[in-house]
Structure formats: structure tokens, C-alpha cells
């Protein structure tokens, strides 16, 4: 059974494995464009009167089937996981998305690579951030597995009657309020010490490598959209710094002086990012193949051109 046949089988039989309240529900499986133009097949099950439903992606379940699980076992697993993903917060209905007044406090940022997401960016409002792009989403609830979000599309923004600039300002503020930024020395993380060097009273002690993310470590690269946070990092370390985009969930920070002392050139740091992306980061979670610099005096975020040298060589 190939992937297409697997999807058809799930679509035709999954209700047999769902709880009784799903007996008359409608099953939908459709392709969803994810980060970096990754297309994934998502399952959603719509009961009468339900506006917001979870979407469960089927790739990993097909992998289980290929590894020897029966269709009965796979469908039972899908049904169990789908039920778990149902929204805990039932207060979110369609008005929580269509009404700007109700949605505005839950709009947050999502940072992606602009070049790899052209299709998405045609459909969604965005703000340029060097060669990255800031998109926006509405956080509509939580599941046992994390956030449930809905994208802000061009049509939705137009219906709200707001500008991209207004949307961006609001989303940046909301993101920091809902998901506060976190800067930790990598040594502390490795030994299990929870710290946030952005908090008062925690001093910088010549950390060579730091992790910049948010408190729940999901979509943490969104901190790059917040110039106040980036400035606070430079104040904490007392230096301009390089940013290694390890994934959409976190970035690494190296003070420029530390990189110089350790003889870590931008070209070498760029090669490090590319190696990690190729070997350890899924395509959907990649942010960039080169590094950035935040200048503490100019308060600007820019690509370090030297870190792209190998990429340019490969493209020739």
C-alpha cells in the first residue's frame, strides 16, 4: 500500500475507531503548506456545529504502517491522538478569529525564511526582516501537545480593517507577553539548570554560546522580530553578537568578541549552521543556512555575508 492508498484507507475507515460522538462527523484530508514549502497531508474531523477542529498530520502514522503496524493498529493510534488534540479551551469559536476585538490579544508572530516560503507569503501579510519574514497567527487554544493556532491571511486582515504595520506591532507585543523570551548559557542547559539571563539579577559570565528562545521553546525564533529583546541581549553580554539560526524554535548567540578569541570566523559559523541543518534539523523546522549579526550600537539585524560563501559556491 503506497501513501495515497494509505490516506484513502484512513479517510474511509477512521470514524470506525473514533468515539461514538463522532459517528456522523465529516472526515477531511487535505494538503497543507507548512514552513519551507513542505506539503503535508492533514486529517480533520468535523462534527456538526464545530468551527475549530484539530488537524493531525499523517506522515508519521504512514511510517508506522511501513514499519509493520497493521492498519487497525495505525487507525486506533490516529483516533487516540486526534481525540487528545481536541481543544481544551472551548471558549474559542469562529468569532474569536473573525472579530478583531476578540482576536487581537492572541495574535503572535512566526519567523520564517522568506525565500523558502514564497507561496505562503503571497497569501499572508508579513513584515520583512533582512532575508527572513515575520508572519502572524492567532493562538486559539491549547491541547495536551501545545498550541493550537490559526494563520492570519490577507483576507482576514482586510476584514479586520487593520494595516500590516498595526498587526506587526500588536503581534510583537503579544508574543513577548504570552511567550516571554529566554536567554540561557548552553552550559546551564546541559546540566539542567533553568535560568534566564534576560531577568534582573542574573549576570553574564563570559558565556561562549547561549540559547535564545521563549519559555516554552516552541517557535522561539520569533524573538528575532522583537528589536527590544535583541537589544536587551546585547546589553546583557555587553557586545554585538552573531546569531546562529539553529531552528524555528531557537537560535544560538555568540558574542563577537568570544568568536574572535576562539578564532571562529563567520565562514566557519555558517558552515556549522549548514552542517547541523543537513544532519539534525528537519526541512520544516529550518530557518536559515547562514548567520546573522546584531549590532549593539546601530541596533540592526543583518546577514553576515561571509557566512554565505559556501552556499554561493554550491550554486555556481
Tell me about this structure:
This protein is an alpha+beta fold and 316 residues long. It has three domains: 3-84, no CATH class; 95-178, no CATH class; 181-315, no CATH class. The chain is built from 13 helices and 13 strands. The chain has helices spanning 3-13, 59-66, 71-84, 95-98, 100-103, 118-123, 154-160, 164-178, 186-190, 227-237, 256-261, 266-280, 309-315, and strands at 26-33, 39-46, 56-57, 107-113, 127-129, 132-143, 146-151, 181-185, 210-214, 241-247, 250-255, 292-295, 300-303. The strands form three sheets. A six-stranded antiparallel β-sheet has the order 8-9-11-10-12-13, sandwiched between helices. Helix 2 packs antiparallel against helix 3 (71-84). The longest helix is centred in the middle third of the chain and has 15 residues, at 164-178. InterPro entries: DUF5688. Pfam families: DUF5688 (PF18941).
Amino acid at each position: 500500500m503506497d501513501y495515497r492508498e494509505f490516506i484513502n484507507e484512513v479517510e474511509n475507515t477512521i470514524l470506525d475507531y473514533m468515539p461514538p460522538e463522532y459517528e456522523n462527523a465529516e472526515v477531511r484530508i487535505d494538503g497543507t503548506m507548512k514552513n519551507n514549502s513542505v506539503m503535508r497531508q492533514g486529517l480533520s474531523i468535523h462534527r456538526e456545529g464545530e468551527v475549530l477542529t484539530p488537524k493531525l498530520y499523517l506522515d508519521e502514522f504512514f511510517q508506522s504502517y511501513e514499519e509493520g503496524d497493521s492498519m487497525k493498529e495505525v487507525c486506533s493510534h490516529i483516533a487516540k491522538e486526534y481525540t487528545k488534540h481536541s481543544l481544551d479551551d472551548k471558549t474559542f469559536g469562529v468569532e474569536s478569529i473573525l472579530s478583531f476585538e476578540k482576536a487581537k490579544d492572541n495574535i503572535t508572530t512566526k519567523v520564517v525564511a522568506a525565500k523558502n516560503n514564497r507561496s505562503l507569503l503571497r497569501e499572508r501579510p508579513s513584515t520583512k526582516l533582512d532575508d527572513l519574514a515575520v508572519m502572524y497567527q492567532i493562538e486559539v487554544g491549547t491541547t495536551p501537545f501545545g498550541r493550537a493556532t490559526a494563520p492570519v491571511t490577507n483576507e482576514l486582515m482586510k476584514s479586520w480593517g487593520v494595516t500590516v504595520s498595526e498587526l506587526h506591532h500588536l503581534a510583537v507585543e503579544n508574543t513577548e507577553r504570552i511567550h516571554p523570551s529566554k536567554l540561557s548559557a548552553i552550559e546551564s542547559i546541559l546540566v539542567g539548570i533553568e535560568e534566564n539571563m534576560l531577568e534582573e539579577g542574573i549576570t553574564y559570565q563570559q558565556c561562549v554560546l547561549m540559547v535564545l528562545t521563549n519559555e516554552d521553546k516552541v517557535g522561539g525564533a520569533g524573538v528575532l522580530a522583537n528589536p527590544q529583546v535583541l537589544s536587551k541581549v546585547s546589553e546583557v553580554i555587553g557586545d554585538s553578537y552573531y546569531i546562529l539560526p539553529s531552528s524555528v524554535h531557537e537560535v544560538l548567540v555568540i558574542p563577537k568578541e568570544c568568536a574572535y578569541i576562539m578564532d571562529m570566523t563567520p565562514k566557519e559559523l555558517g558552515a556549522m549552521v549548514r552542517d547541523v541543518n543537513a544532519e539534525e534539523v528537519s526541512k520544516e523546522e529550518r530557518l536559515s543556512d547562514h548567520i546573522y549579526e546584531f549590532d549593539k550600537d546601530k541596533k540592526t539585524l543583518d546577514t553576515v555575508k561571509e557566512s554565505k560563501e559556501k552556499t554561493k559556491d554550491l550554486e555556481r
